[in-house]
Design goal:
189 residues; alpha+beta; Deoxyribonuclease I, Chain A; four-stranded mixed β-sheet; 4 helices; 26% helix; globular
Length: 189
Amino acid sequence: MVSMLILVSNVRGLNDRARRMGVRSVVSTTAASIVCLQEAKLAIVSLSIVMETLGAYFDAYFCLPATDTRGGIIVAWKSRVVQLDSAHIDTNSVTPRINPPGGVPWWLTCVYGPQEEADKINFLAELREVRRVHSSPWVLCDFNMIYRDEDKNNDNLHHRMMGRFRRFLDDCVLKEVYLHGRRYTWSNE
């Protein structure tokens, strides 16, 4: 099975050419074959913008366009290395199937979660549906919800939402996996 590096980053907007060049500089220092960009803030995404931002080898992508100046997700990949297909694109997530050469297909969900409590509850319901529809191995990447007090750097905790998130992780049989850097992700494998 071929090893793949997946880079996940909150880019806080790609409307500025200098920001796109900064992202490209970071991506070029990695061996990533899949890149998930959160908070792209682009209402219109094109292959030329993806290639300008990530490099010419990132020649395929799925996206969730931004609404006004909020959100936006881009999942791009090097088609000569790996194939992604069957993307499930929802309100706050993009979930393609990863087809690694010589490996078992699996699902990758990249998210941009909402801030309001009611929206977060709907967001967790959206992710439960993604899980229900895609029963094979699943990895859920990097978003700003916590389920433990120690994950917060201040005392401003929302215990009810933390409990909802903990139940979601348990119900979907997800376990935390450390990512290189400072974030975590969840997997059912």
